[in-house]
């Protein structure tokens, strides 16, 4: 596949989907009568918690990995990540038969370290600061010649994440609204691109925790604004938007909603209790948005992306 | 539908399935590559945790309710249950537009009381002894004229539970083994009937906690033997077999395996972590059997019934 230097076109996203199909699951879309009754909306949950490695990140990582040249692939893939992106890069490398080098903060949950190592990746631990992660990664790349795969500031990754909404909109063809959580913005920008390519009617909303509302504030300010704190339970959404993801979000996303920690925990618990599926706090955010701002959603057909299911069962918020 | 005075025939089970279809979900059959790798078997999980009311009990209760005469229905349905059967009777009554009267021990999990009341049932609380449950139920039936629906010692209920294995074997047509947990024996006997009606090759195993091994001991003794303790985490399996269920199990089940509490908790956790679905401790028993007795299952295609997903999230064993 060709490398992507610009915002992915619809054809880029379609080609990406065909290329990554052997490396991903087509995940199911579930609905839940009792949550529909509670919210007054018709909700369709795209279950990326059932994706390989337990999260949508597999789509973006495999899209980026497949675009490397044979020579680049041979030297391996590298990234720094405390979570799902680490596993996604590790499994992509395993499936391609090449090395993976993952820099992880020493505070990462054991379950994520084990899973990453289980895919055969070489893990280098570092302090849990961005500076330590970047300098450790730079040393690993210097030593190995591996290619750094950014978790979101990369059009190849965005094109991969964009395939999530493509499958959802293929399965439910008449959605009024699509709703994605926003962290670094890879999924959000990919979702917005696909939605607007596939429909000129659909409304695209984002959701993020109030405590890490950089996307809402960046859109309001018209330029990138960073988070001032990261103490949200939604650990997948603590990152800031990048230039690439912000530009797409500013252009294509109709509105970003913010929700409280309590609303996230309530939505997570409701999903566990009623749908009997395990979702991470980060992917409870879309349902929390529906429950916090009901007037936007009542009577509508709403697609929600459940981004992942990797939870440390020893540290639940309830 | 006709009342069932004898062991359900294959035609009875087929008719039951057609009749209850509007009252149940056809639940999915899931598989999990990483658990297959761990066990060396090819496992197919029938997800009754996604069933209405969150458990297979909806099948048996609706089968029994639909067999009542118009006059009996009008007076309502009654039962005593601390859990899923209570919700199943309550929802069956709601769907038929008739009253439900449920006797529940005052120690029942709040989530189960709430759910039962949420279906419009009248709940009568009593002490958590079998004597108190039976005398309280007798008073309720005396007062209302409602019909008692036994959780398992009833051929109509057994015929309903038997539809679980029917769907599983329709979806996966070449299973070598089918494996069900054993509590009162309604699901186990229904599973055994269906399996042997649909295949003359399939092996039918049961699994129960070592601490409540009445089924294994009853089969060994050749007559009903009661549990001497009920302190298992698998709260759905604390009941004793009945005459009706024991007779079928003795005739049709190839072997009953017993597993430790630790094996149950490990299997439950593995299912949550790898499959991202919520299952009750009771339905971790089949996977615990596969992991405790691997030589019976390696290289085989094995159907496992995941019976329910109603867990008190405030009281997890991990």
Describe the structure.
Two copies of one chain form a homodimer. The first copy, chain A, is α/β, with parallel strands linked by helices. The first copy, chain A, folds into two domains: 10-55 and 154-306, Rossmann fold, CATH 3.40.50; 58-148, 3-Layer(aba) Sandwich (Rossmann fold). The first copy, chain A, has helices at residues 10-20, 33-39, 57-66, 70-75, 84-96, 110-118, 130-144, 155-171, 186-198, 214-221, 243-252, 261-275, 285-292, and strands at 29-30, 42-47, 77-80, 100-105, 122-126, 147-148, 177-181, 203-209, 255-259, 301-306. In chain A, the strands form two sheets. A six-stranded mixed beta sheet of chain A has the order 1-2-10-7-8-9, with helices on both faces. A four-stranded parallel beta sheet of chain A has the order 5-4-3-6, sandwiched between helices. In chain A, helix 12 (261-275) crosses helix 13 (285-292). Chain A starts with 9 loop residues before the first helix and ends in a 12-residue tail after the last strand.
């Amino acid at each position: 596949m060709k490398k992507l230097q610009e915002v992915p076109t619809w054809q880029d996203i379609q080609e990406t989907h065909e290329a990554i199909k052997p490396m991903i699951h087509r995940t199911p879309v579930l609905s839940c009568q009792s949550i529909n009754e509670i919210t007054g909306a018709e909700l369709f949950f795209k279950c990326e918690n059932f994706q390989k490695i337990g999260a949508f990140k597999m789509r973006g990582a495999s899209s980026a990995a497949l675009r490397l040249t044979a020579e680049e692939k041979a030297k391996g893939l590298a990234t720094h990540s405390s979570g799902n992106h680490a596993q996604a890069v590790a499994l992509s490398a395993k499936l391609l038969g090449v090395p993976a080098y993952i820099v992880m903060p020493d505070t990462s949950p054991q379950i994520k370290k084990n899973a990453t190592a289980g895919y055969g990746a070489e893990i280098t631990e570092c302090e849990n600061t961005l500076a330590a992660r970047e300098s450790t990664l730079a040393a690993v790349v210097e030593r190995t010649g591996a290619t750094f795969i950014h978790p979101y500031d990369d059009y190849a990754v965005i094109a991969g994440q964009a395939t999530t909404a493509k499958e959802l909109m293929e399965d439910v063809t008449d959605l009024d609204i699509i709703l994605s959580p926003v962290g670094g913005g890879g999924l959000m920008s990919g979702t917005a691109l696909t939605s607007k390519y596939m429909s000129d009617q659909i409304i695209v909303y984002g959701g993020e925790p109030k405590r890490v509302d950089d996307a809402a504030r960046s859109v309001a300010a018209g330029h990138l604004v960073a988070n001032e704190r990261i103490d949200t339970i939604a650990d997948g959404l603590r990152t800031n938007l990048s230039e690439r993801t912000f530009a797409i979000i500013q252009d294509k996303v109709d509105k970003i909603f913010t929700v409280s920690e309590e609303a996230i925990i309530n939505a997570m618990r409701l999903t566990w209790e009623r749908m009997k599926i395990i979702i991470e706090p980060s992917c409870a955010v879309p349902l929390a948005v529906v429950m916090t701002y009901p007037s936007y959603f009542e009577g509508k057909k709403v697609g929600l992306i459940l981004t992942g299911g990797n939870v440390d069962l020893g540290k639940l918020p309830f």
